[in-house]
Structures are given as C-alpha cells and as structure tokens.
C-alpha cells in the first residue's frame, strides 16, 4: 500500500536530487506531507513532518566523515527512480 509518498508524476522539488541534495525547496509538496509518528517525528517545523531526511528550513546535516579528502556524495549518472504500484 502506498501511504504518505509523493507518487510520480509529482516532483518533490528537492534542491539537487541528481547530486544527492535531497532537501526540499520553498513550495515543495514534500513540506508538511510526512506522517506523524509519536516519539519519532519530534521537533518538526511547520504543520507536520516533511517527507524525506531533511526538514525544510532546518540546518542541513550530513553523516560520515567531513575531513579533507573523505567527503562523498551520491551521484546520479542518469539513473531514474521507478514506481511499481506500491503494493
């Protein structure tokens, strides 16, 4: 069952999805569109949690090493996400 997902052809309007920058831009349909989970979705900005890893307007965070020479990002060399019906 598909629940609380942005189903194509909806564009989530992320900053730069091709290069792994998945935080929503102003006007993104992902803003406030996430599901509230008691004890998990805390500290949201706006009327509800945003879909995705980043809350719109919150500081951008990242995991892993941030020392010179060890930064890495997901790069999209032409792959595309597909929707299979969500069942």
TrEMBL record:
User: Per the record, where are the segments of Low complexity compositional bias?
Assistant: 32-44
Disordered: annotated segments? 1-50
What Gene3D superfamilies does the entry give?
Single-stranded right-handed beta-helix, Pectin lyase-like
The protein's name: Uncharacterized protein
In its UniProt entry, the species of origin is given as Streptomyces himastatinicus ATCC 53653
